[in-house]
Amino acid sequence: MTIQTRLVEYRHGDLVLEGLLAWDDALRGPRPAVAISHTWAGRSVFEEGKAQVLAQQGYVGFAIDMYGKGVRGGTPEESTALMTPLMQDRPLLQQRITNAVTVLREQSEVDPGRVAAIGYCFGGLCVLDLARTGSDVRGVASFHGLFGAPGNTRGNKISASVLCLHGYDDPMVPPQAVLDLASELTGAGADWQVHAYGNTVHSFTNPEADNVAMGAAYDRRADRRSSLALSHFLEEIFA
Q1: What domains, with CATH codes, occur in the chain?
Q2: Phi and psi angles of residue 231, each rounded to the nearest 5 degrees, phi first
């Protein structure tokens, strides 16, 4: 096994973006692929590491870019400034992540009929919005993502399987938001699951998360459990 990576430059309209693709060159032929949507801070070593782990599992991992090539948030204030325009223009957000999935499908290592998307925090909202558009990706998985409905996808059918991995004590996504999402997904005809981890807050998969004021902290047990849940989910949807 030798994990290879390459940077993939692509465009959405006039905006230049850059993602990182990871795959195992010991495997031959096209294989299932997973797009990884980043946190509010932009594409980083965190998402790139997830892409490489997926490559070790036999998939193609693609750490996508929602902000623009080289654009990163170094502080909470900078990250908020980057995320806010897309949160306020959900159709644009949806178009941008759909474009990233299209780019992933065009890579020679990828079986274009077997693609999924996962996301962390802001990225979790992005992949849920991808499913809400009626995208034909096999499935989406949100890790400590935001759940608020966009308002422009009501009435759409969701064909992608949906997995939400959620810290029950996440102050950004209270229990009522979980119930609202469940009702929304059921109404859209989705095959959905929500795994809620007790005594767990936001950003539980990120070892660097340690912001009590924001309700964000790493949780080793929830991280392990959610990783196993994702493995089972991908095996199921790509079978």
Answers
A1: 3-237 (3.40.50.1820)
A2: -60, -45
Determine phi and psi for 185, rounding to 5 degrees. -65, -40
Task: Give the torsion through C-alpha atoms of 16, 142, 44, 50, to 10 deg.
Answer: -110
pTM of this prediction exceeds 0.70: yes
Q: State the Cα–Cα distance between residues 234 and 239, nearest whole angstrom.
A: 8
Other Cβ atoms within 10 Å of 183 Cβ, number = 11
CA 85 to CA 93: how far, in whole Å? 9
Decide: helix, strand or coil at residue 194: strand
Six-digit token pair at 214? 């924001």
pLDDT digits (tens, 9 = 90+) for 30-56: 999 999 999 999 999 999 999 999 999
**DSSP type of residue 107:** S
Q: Are 73 and 43 in contact (CB under 8 A)?
A: no
Report residue 126 as tokens. Answer: 């992005």
Closest CA to 171 of 211, 126, 131: 211
Angle (CA) 155-86-159 rounded to 5° is 30
Ranges of beta strands (E only) in 104-234 are 110-120, 139-143, 161-167, 192-197, 210-211, 216-217
